[in-house]
Specification:
This protein has 489 residues and is of the alpha+beta class. The chain folds into 3 domains: 206 residues, no CATH class; 190 residues, Nucleotide cyclase, GGDEF domain (Alpha-Beta Plaits, 2-Layer Sandwich), CATH 3.30.70; 55 residues, no CATH class. It is built from 13 helices and 10 strands. This is Adenylate cyclase.
Amino acid sequence: MMSAPADLRNASTSAGKAMTGDYQNSPVAIPPMPDYNGRILAYTATAAIIVSGVLQGVFHHWLLWLVAGALTWPHIAHIVTRRTFLRQSARIRQKMLVVDCIIGGAFIGCIGLVAIPSVSVVVMLMFSCLIVGGIRQWLLGTVFLAAGTAAAVAITGPADTFQSPLLTSILAIVSTGLYICVTAFYSHQQARALMLAKTQIQNQREQSIALSHKLSKYLSPQVWQSIFTGERDVRLETQRKKLAVFFSDIKGFTELSEEMEPEALTELLNHYFNEMSEVALKYGGTIDKFVGDSIMIFFGDPTSRGQREDAFACVSMAIDMRKHMKIMRQKWRSQGIKTPLEIRMGISTGYTTVGNFGAENRMDYTIIGKEVNLASRLESLAEPGEILISYETFSLIKDRIMCRDKGEITVKGFGKPVPIYEVVDFRRDLGPNRSFLEHEHSGFAMYLDSDKITEKERESILTALEDAADRLRRGDDTSLPEATAGKAY
């Protein structure tokens, strides 16, 4: 006559399916009470009420025919909802419960509105409606229950008395109580299982987040973000875009690798890569790869601020790296590394092919094209501490960055000689009002960036500079006080 509550079970298994893609593989085994078993329990109780009422003379004898219907309907409903095309119908459980309400209303009308059996059937039906579909299902069930009851009463008429014998009343009450207790027990079990499922799903979600962050270390943050937000599919696809391409390597690294132990060399290289990566991410660069002591970075994908701004950000990053390298070099000297390490850089701007390259089971997000080759060539031609850029890059940043003409070079893939330029510095930092000052000799190095110095730091820096000046005037060979980023060495 009604379906047992299973919404909690469905919700939990749906959560499991969301995590695993399969209902059978849900993270928690939910104690089931399917609609089939619920109907068998409810309709068997109804059949017992009919038999008791007929035997005690309160119901008509022809109602015994309903016993067969009450015992067979749960099986018919199960076949209809699980074995036919109706199993794919939306909200099939709620629809079948409406049918149960109509059947229950017709039964109440056929027994002539006898009080306690009628109330028993109504309670079981309304209890099921509330659990399965909430208030909306309860209101809908009430309407169809009332309609079924009214139709049956109009045909058979009400009973002579609304009172039922004691045995029939007790049987109806016990049947109703048993149904409610059993369904409530399963609902409680399902609720506990659902909470456990939610806990496991939350744990799996946290593990997935932790794993995704670990995997993100192998991808540029911009690429990782676009993949995990769904903006980009992980498949073999490429596109043509105008990018600013950056290459750099360390001059003198080969000689240093012959002098240092592999462990110390690895630590130095990782420290260098970490510092340079922080600078690159500050300017929005997409780190493509590290090869030996070389770094490849590009601007303009997966996010772009426009060709001019991308080129400016790329050159600004290179200038910042050059300044940062001076600080790092002094730190390395203090650690006993005497080999002078200089960074050299090359930048080219133009159309490249960017996207996923490789195989379906192993991809690499990178760029190819002649502009990549040009940037690599510029890097190899640069002197230590020098930044060489192509003409296309120069045309985009010349109004804000001072550059020096370096002539032309011949590059494979280019039909004509390529004009190249050397980056001097930001125009705002040139002349008497420049914000930084740098000076370096054997035994002395100074890098001053007045824009980054606070008032509190200014006094201590002035003291260090005055002390250094006094020592130099006296010809004292004592080591000068060490400082970085605005302090004297």
